[in-house]
Model the fold of this input.
Amino acid sequence: MTQDQINKRVEDALNSIDNIQSATLSPFFKTRVFSSLANKEQAETSGQFKPVLLIVVSVLLIVMNTILFTNISYNNNAEKNTDTSSLDQFSKDYSLNTFTNNPYDIK
Amino acid sequence: MSDKFEFIELLKKGDEEAFAQLVDAYQDNVFNTAISIIQHIQDAEDLTQEVFVQIFRSIKDFRGDAKLSTWIYRITLTKALEWERKKKTKKAISYFKNLVGLENKEEVVVNFFHPGIALDNKENASVLFKALQTLPSNQRIAFILIKAEGLTYQEVGIIMNKSVKSIEGLIQRAKDNLRVVLEKQYLK
Done:
């Protein structure tokens, strides 16, 4: 191929997109855009809802745990109190000395 | 119609009828620009859809400093370049996977034929589109907008935020680079 022929082909290629016709989209394109918008909106709404749900569930869990924990410790304390008071009453009733841990304790 | 204040206000309010009119008015421009840049019909259709979703979401931020068409072209170009970057990254990952033996896919190079080009020009245009891929993105965009989209230097200058003189310079450099690439191609 001569240089002139090459130059001509190069110029032809450079000008090949000058009279380009507009390519058209499918007739359903608009429907696709609208359904994509609807899908994205739906995904966003559920996405926004998720963190709120997570926070609510974790707050509920914390509250329930706190209630349970305070209830248990309150019951334990109450049980302890009743135990010692009934022992005191018992020792008083039968005129018993209170026990000490030290066996060499001088009374 | 598209630059009327009332029309833009309707779009900002999320009016679906106004948005449908906007899609009708600009879908071909967006699609044709996308197709020339990413050189894949199905990808260009998906990208056009993404562009309109983006337009619907960010129309509230449109201040009206530029024409609506300019703004739409800017979104299209940004998205198309982003798309290209992602594709290149995917290609590089795939190449690496092939290299280490994690994947065994051979890359098939397919010539791109623009659907809007007349049959007798298809071969020349295909060679040109291949050569266009070797250009820096700003030269390529300027060349496509002027040659394929038929925009004026001034319009392209506004879209690319450059002076008419620098657009002329970009086109000149694009043509010079393309001549070198095409010459090499025809000498083979």
